[in-house]
Amino acid sequence: MYIIEGNIGAGKSTFLKLLQNKLPDAKVAMEPVNDWQKKVYGQSLLANFYQNPQRWAYSIETFAMICRVRDHLVNQQEKDAIFVERSIYSGHYCFSQNGYENGFMTVLEWNMYCKWFEFLIPDKCKPPLGFIYLSVDPEIAYQRIKKRNRLAEKKLTLAYLKQIHQKHEDFLIHKKNILLELKNVPVLQLDCNKEFENDKAVFEKHLAKIHDFVKSYPKQSFTHLAPRDCSIP
Q: In which domain, by residue range, is 62 found?
């Protein structure tokens, strides 16, 4: 399992769609953002969080962790290479931790969240074979978000994107305060400041680097996997 990481607006979903178009047999698992944007129990968690993070941070981060753990437990059973959009790790080290540091969660909520993380992740979820980090300057990510004009993202600020960018750098590049089992997981950093969706040459360069990165594990191959739904019964 290889995990595609990056800030909001880095182009993760687009990157995975292009990857699957280029390699039709590639297994791809998209992040279940639509489940957080559509109504869950009568609420749109993502929109609610952006509008009132102090009220909704604990709710969305706990729900997101449940979704990601469910997917991770299935994806880690795959014998073939699978590319997964975001992870339980960036959910914790980037978004949840940033939320707590900004006062979006109380000390009690943060401690409860961490207890769930400690219970669900270290002993049950196997580390990925590698992380593929789509690195983008926050200013460029912000412009892309404005361009795609998603309703749930109207309240996003450049200041917030800068915070999330730094959290990704600390997690993936500097490997600060992360699980010991993650410290030796290799990271492929791709500079995605240049537009790659409509520039074939740029994407081909990224694809070549991924081929070199993955071929270290010759027993794995590319086959198709449809994105999983992550709704709570």
A: 2-214
Q: Distance between CA atoms of 154 and 104, rounded to whole angstroms? A: 18
Q: Judge whether 117 lies within some domain.
A: yes
224 lies in a domain?
A: no
Give catalytic status of residue 85 as yes or no. Answer: yes
The pTM score is 0.85
Is 94 contained in some domain? yes
Which of 85, 101, 109, 153 is flagged as catalytic? Answer: 85
Identify whether 95 is part of a domain: yes
Structural tokens at position 120: 């669900």
Q: What would the pLDDT profile of 42-62 be if each residue is shown by its tens digit?
A: 457 777 777 887 888 898 899
